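pasting for ref
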Amino acid sequence: MISVFGAFTPLRDFFLALGSAAFHGGAWAFIDAITRPAQAFVATGKQTKQLWLIILGVAAVIGLAGAAYGIGVTSILPVAAFVAAAIYLADVRPKVKDFPKNGGTSSGPYGPW
């Protein structure tokens, strides 16, 4: 892309920042999804852990490509990567983080045993 007198510089910088945000958000979400138990995703009514790991892994790679190579301003991929990471962090993570890591608790009806 050839810019005339820097006409596309603010837009290019915006997509570069969006790619960086997609990479950092996708990487954080991917690492968070790895640490959550697989049964938490199904029990909370979200997709499977494997599907979320694939989605977030692809989002992190696309975000890295957008940040490192400056994917063009006409590319929708960094936007999609950012949205995928945002959906996980805003919708899925709050539900699965409350799920116990061992799949159950040792507490009875009146508190811990």
